[in-house]
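DM from R.C. (forwarded with permission)

"hey, sorry to bug you on a friday — could you get me a structure for this? deadline for the figure draft is monday and I only need the backbone to look sensible"
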Amino acid sequence: MIELQGLTKRFGSKTAVDDLSFQVRPGVVTGFLGPNGAGKSTTMRMALGLDHPTSGSVRIDGRHYRELDEPLKYIGALLEARGLHGGRTAYNNLLCLAQSNRIPESRVTEVLELVGLSAVTRKKPKGFSMGMGQRLGIAAALLGNPQILMFDEPVNGLDPEGIHWIRNLMKTLAAEGRTIFVSSHLMSEMALTADHLIVIGQGRLLADTSMADFIHRNSRSYVRLRSPQRERLLDALHGAGLTAVEAGDGTLEVDGATAEQVGDLAARHGITLHELSAQRASLEEAFMRMTAATVEYHAHSATVPQWSKEV
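My reply, with the result:
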């Protein structure tokens, strides 16, 4: 388990992490979300002893990272895939890490095979594609067979097959009872992977909840319907105390009722429906709604300048 208590980090006058307290528990994939500049990477770096907190603490199974003997056996992390030595072979990169933590050399071959790099074990990472470098970084994280794994943007550079692989890997590891903590900006991927969410903004905790509860609390659910008997449908909805909103393309949106309730209402009135579907906001929409006030960098639309050519 990863446990943060009052974790704070200041860089001069800027507070990057502000009194964060939460736990990352085993057995589930916990997603770590926040806008750019929210403090996610700084938080992960403090968990690994790469940055020192201004105040507060972060513990790995009850101990500070610096107190762990052979830390790769406790926690594996992918923060920067290109952090490995570009001039050493993939095998030797992992072998150095293994020897420093008294991990058997046979484990190097195992993890290289697990991440799909068996064919390039004797090649140097400086010639790797971004996706191959990412796989090597994941292999390094898995090297000590740790109970805790922390990934920052693990799907960067991976092709669709690689994304599917890392998603299933994280779910499998969590099902084994391990603690999986993953940060990503890809909301569609996080929605398919994470069971629980930690959301921060401007260094402060915004949410610590299940994926389903987060979407439910921060999004709008409604029923979408379309009928050739539009006026009769509107009258029936109005009579049932339901308000329909015009949505374009001849469709209506109804809040405050389930698709089953609306379908039954239409059937009782003999109204034909050409479309009836429950609509639920995506994780991305829920995330944007919750974090709107904490986004530090906003892009604005601008008019593209028209350059004239002097004659």
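R.C.: lifesaver. The longest strand covers residues 14-24.
me: no worries. The two ends are 69 Å apart (CA to CA).
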